[in-house]
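TEACHING EXERCISE
Course module: macromolecular assemblies
Task: Read the component lines below, then compare them to the predicted structure of the full complex.
Student: A.B.
Group: 4
Components provided:
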Amino acid sequence: DADVTQTPRNRITKTGKRIMLECSQTKGHDRMYWYRQDPGLGLRLIYYSFDVKDINKGEISDGYSVSRQAQAKFSLSLESAIPNQTALYFCATRTSAGTGNTEAFFGQGTRLTVV
Amino acid sequence: GNSVTQMEGPVTLSEEAFLTINCTYTATGYPSLFWYVQYPGEGLQLLLKATKADDKGSNKGFEATYRKETTSFHLEKGSVQVSDSAVYFCALSTGQSSGSARQLTFGSGTQLTVLP
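Instructor-supplied answer key:
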């Protein structure tokens, strides 16, 4: 089984609908992240969480919300989806141990299309 | 703030050609530097990393040297294979106590296609 699991893998939704993307991890990491990938723009950080009670906005949080239900679970919601939220979404985890040189582990991504 | 600049792609090479993908960065403090690779249909995975100046990270025939004087971390491989076709991301992280500074900052990615 994958260490970081994202569901669904693919989703098509209509404009204005609410949608939730889920992420779960078995790494035991305290830090979890949601990124969005668009062609030519790399990965942009939407939200990040350093533990269940610590949630922070990233560089492009508008139109998104998150919930850290447990250390292992971090969900991303689009309250009212719009077409420019069509993208590939990645969840990632990372340990807080060390001095910033630890690697991040990524899920396989969720391809979201808003029509 | 922190930023990473990668050479724009796409890059198309013939098998056994030499590969260089340029990466430069700006950062406060002393960053750790990473190269991630994304194969088609998959998430990112760590390819190599270097945590201090003059360190060389290497894996699967790829190498990158942390050059503090030029703030660079260029990815190289002497002889690419078709199986190396993927998107490559340069990234950095600093060890500052500020939560935002501990995030990974990614470059825009470089698509590599290797033709047989």
